[in-house]
Amino acid sequence: MPKRSESLDRMFSALADPTRRAMVERLARGPANVSDLAKPLNMSLPAVMQHLQTLERSGLVTSRKIGRVRTCRIQPKRFDAAQAWLARQRAHWEARFDRLDAFLEKSED
User: Fold this and answer.
1) 74 closest CA partner among 97, 50, 53, 56
2) Domain boundaries, the chain
3) Is the pLDDT of residue 40 over 60?
4) pTM above 0.70, yes or no
5) Domain HTH arsR-type, which positions (predicted)?
């Protein structure tokens, strides 16, 4: 069984939804309050809050409430684990394709 990381599972699960990816893309430009995040989305504020909670559980986003305004921020360091996992997968598959290329070249000779 492959080594599993609960935190990596939560990250990829959170990013599997297009609404949450849109929220992450918006937050990559800078902090935003919940109302600003909700504006381009065609959904209720409670639905936006549920998506935001999923992003917060994944660790990709944090929020802080001051008065009546909740401001959200992306946590760029949290993407390092996903990036490292993807880089390992890419290296693994590139090595396999290189071996296949070498085998096919040798077979043609």
Assistant:
1) 56
2) 2-75
3) yes
4) yes
5) 1-94
